[in-house]
Amino acid sequence: MTKLLELDGVSRTYSSRSGLFGAPIPVRAVDGVSLSVAPGRTLGIVGESGCGKSTTGRLALGLERPDAGSVRFAGAPMPAPGTAAWRRQRARMQLVFQDPLGALDRRLPIARQIAEPLVVHGIGNRAEREARVAALLADVGLPAELGRRHPHELSGGQRQRAVLARALATNPSLLVCDEPISALDVSIQAQVVNMLADLQAERGIALIFISHDLKVVRQVSHEVAVMYLGRVVEQGDPDEIFAEPAHPYSRALVSAVPSVGPRRIERIVLKGDPPNPADRPSGCAFHPRCPLATAQCRAESPALRPLVDGRLVACHLAATRRLVA
Amino acid sequence: MSATQIDGATQIDSAGQIDGAGINGAGIEGAVVVAARQRRRGMPVAVICALVWLAAMLAVALAADSLRPYSITAIDLRARLQPPVGFGGSLRHLLGTDELGRDVLSRLIESVRVSVLIAFGATAIAATFGTTMGFIAAHFRGLVEQAVLVLIDFQASMPFLIVALAVLAFFGNSLPLLVALMGLYGWERYARIARGLAIAANAQGYAAAVRQIGARPLRIYLGHVLPNIASTLIVSATLSFPEIVLLESGLSFLGLGVQPPMTSLGNMVGFGREYITRAPWILLAPSVTIVLTTLCVSLLGDWLRDRLDPTLS
After folding, report:
1. Topology annotation, domain B45-307
2. So what's the ipTM on this one?
3. Within chain B, which residue ranges are assigned CATH 1.10.3720.10?
4. How many C-beta neighbours within 10 Å does residue B12 have?
5. pTM of the prediction?
6. Hey, which residues 195-214 in chain B have their CB within 8 Å of chain A?
7. Nearest CA in chain A to B226
8. Closest Cα partner for A162 from A107, A115, A210, A211?
9. B80: left (phi over 0), alpha (psi -120 to 50) or beta
């Protein structure tokens, strides 16, 4: 299967300053991440806050340029942000935001905002745009008369649908959803997730679904990447990862998912400080919190290697343990 | 759906309040309801008065030539320092005359024209220039932003009156120059506001969203950021409009603003000062005009700020 989007060893470093006269400290938000998405498939990215999920999403969309590595969309390298080629490409890839109220212009009625991508990219005339907006509103399950409302007159779920309608206006082939449901309450979360799945099945859109909600990621994704401190620590089939996580960090994440009835995995409570990307531990970044850490983990950073079942894990122990078992 | 429900609820609520007021007959509750209704329906009385006054000022400024009963330089030495009508004056000079027997009303009308031109022109220049600089800083960041910030700090740290004195002393005095100079006054406030709000909008929110749709910068800034921050800028403009009127008055009072025989409100106050004990009307007429005009602009700006915000209704 040909890939729609390929990230090859991308890194992004920000510099942050400590104190008034402190020297700038480089913070590696994303460090050598390689991911890819095929048309019509969903890649889930999970991890705790600060692990580089959102930065990965922004790099994938070309909103930021990687310091190292390359991003290729439909086989071609990503143009620099702000150029005419980059602007044209926005019609093919769109971002769905976490905060729908912030992403909508509160002074304009919803229909005008949904039509905006069409106006920007010069698609259709006035009547065609109106028809398209009506169709989009219907696609995301919003009544047509809501188009005349302003964002603050809508509920949270309706706003997220409106944002989604705007993202779909130009018929993009890639949609990056950055925590699209974490600002919504649970019943509406399910509706939005189901709608995303339906739209993907209908239009063959490739999705990158960024979330910290493992259950939702498992439900929507065809492939999952678990990130820790800017690196992918485990990547593969969601059912396999969630049934039998190979990396100790994934295991702790999966064990934290609340479940009804007896637990399949004993709850692992991580000790130690949450990770600080400005002060990366030596060797495996996870070793200070890892219950299984050895001397090798403290000294040597593990590479992402395939296990026998095909998924990728970056852990010295996982490989040996799996191979032994 | 939800919005109509909420609308319905407020209607029922206010109806209930009106009923309650009717039964109690209590003035306070009635007043609250009336005030609430006014806020919903339209303009409070003060804003209507302000609008009427400002419209009158504009009309006077536009039609000054035909409204003036006398020429502003017409001297009538036999009718010097005549008091206004009602204070012992005659109907020939409604607001009295000054030390040379010139008609105060005619001079006031001409002054309104000059001062309104300077104040509106300068406010428009400052708002346009400042907002543009703010957007440029927010868009390019880096060195461009640093340069704009240095300019802003320079402008903010120099006492404007001294800058104005220096410019007028070197370049002489003409009305266009004065308007342009006043236009430099306060631009740094618009620039700061525009830069801060545009950066916030670019970092997260509607501007970032429109940018990633693929819109050009001009569309983002003029189509989205400007309407969203307009209410803040308008409030800033209504705050600096009175200051410009007062600044022009101050400069004219010092003899550096509008030069005789031309006249402005501040100029009239400045020259009327010498006769403040014998003929206070020369100074009071323009002073009252300055106070009322600045007050009306402030009232109107405050009301506009609320009206331009669709989330306050």
Report:
1. MetI-like fold (1.10.3720)
2. 0.82
3. 45-307
4. 10
5. 0.77
6. 204-206, 208-210, 212-214
7. A107
8. A115
9. beta
